[in-house]
Amino acid sequence: MAEQPAIEPMHQFLIHKLVQGPVFQIGGVNFDMSITNSVASMLVGAALIVVFFLTTARGSIVPNRAQAVVEALYNIVDRILVTPIIGHHGRPYIPYLFTLFMVIAVLNLMGVVLAFGNLAGQSWTFTVTSQLAVTATLAVLTFFSVFILGFIKHGPKFLTLFAPSGMPPALLVFMVPIEMLSYFVRPITLAMRLFGNMLGGHVVMSLFGSFVVALGIVALSGGVATLALIPSVLSFAMIVALTGLELVVAILQAFVFTALATVYLNEVVNFGHGH
Amino acid sequence: MEAEAAKLIGAGLATSGMIGAGIGLGVLFGNYLQAAIRNPAAAASQQTMLFLGMALTETMGLFAFVVSLIILFAS
Q1: pLDDT-derived band of residue A22, with 50, 70 and 90 as boundaries?
Q2: So what's the ipTM on this one?
Q3: Which of A42, A155, A207, B36 could be disulfide-bonded to B43 (CB atoms 3.0-4.6 Å)?
Q4: Full residue range of the structural domain in which residue B68 is found
Q5: Domain CATH number, residue B30
Q6: Which residues in chain B are contacts of A78 at CB distance < 8 A?
Q7: In this structure, how many other beta carbons lie within 10 angstroms of the beta carbon of residue A231?
């Protein structure tokens, strides 16, 4: 029997350096400016978004195909999220929300569409959003910009967010800590949701991929073992189905992240309006 | 029992918290479909709320996932 390849579903998430960069030391903390596969994927994603929007920025009344795609994407953020949830006061925040949506959607999709894994012993594609550091950065950035915006717009009065109105004073002792806990757990859940979904999906896909190879090698040894071809082919069919599912999940998670950011923003913009 | 084995079993047990998230998602989508079939005209307008509910329900399952990851890799 031929040698079995090792099944390593977590191997695809390893970060390795592609180009060694300078290392800065600020306050005893090392900042390694090397280009890793994570950074490279983010640069490619950013380049894709910029090129996509540069080619469609010159709008015409009768849109061509690329412009129609951009308008459909914009409508997801504007007509489905911001206008129904916040109202027209939310329009100034659309650029941030739309950027968030596009970045997450493109990085997610790059992980699925370009998932051909290892070529020549080097993994070329990488799902950036399956790194907790990346999703946590997006979540913390979103959460604290919304939180600080609340203080800018409403001043110290914003702290009454943690004390629901019409509450008996005796209950406030319990309610305020609970409200604060459920408020400050938000960046963690935002980061974990995206991270967990992308990690989970890719681990499952990778596992089925290694089944195809491992069972195929078993089948090659001939005799009764040839029957192993059946689960091998079934695993391959499963990968095709899972890729379809992952495409949906990629867009859906970008949508959900943006939707939650919109809901958090709504509390700030429509603060005290009983929404 | 070896500590390593206990860790793996514990990580597996920790994922049982996802049962609740599974039930929750079933209730959520089941009720949405029921309502959507009764009143298809109103279905599209509630889709955003459906996905928001899905995201919040999923969070509970993800907490279990995180606990299991902490047991596996951070202890």
Answers
A1: confident
A2: 0.73
A3: B36
A4: 3-73
A5: 1.20.20.10
A6: none
A7: 17
Distance CA B53, CA A181 (A): 19
3-state SS assignment for residue A35 = strand
Cα separation, A28 vs A31, in Å, equals 10
- Chain B environment of A248 (Cβ under 8 Å): none
pLDDT tens across A83-92, in order? 888 888 889 9
Q: How many CB pairs under 8 A join A and B?
A: 34
Q: Where are the domains of chain A?
A: 11-15+26-269
Opening angle at CA A70, ends A141 and A267, nearest 5: 35
Tokens of A55: 């080619």
Q: Which residue has the tokens 């919109």?
A: A262
Q: How many domains does chain B have?
A: 1
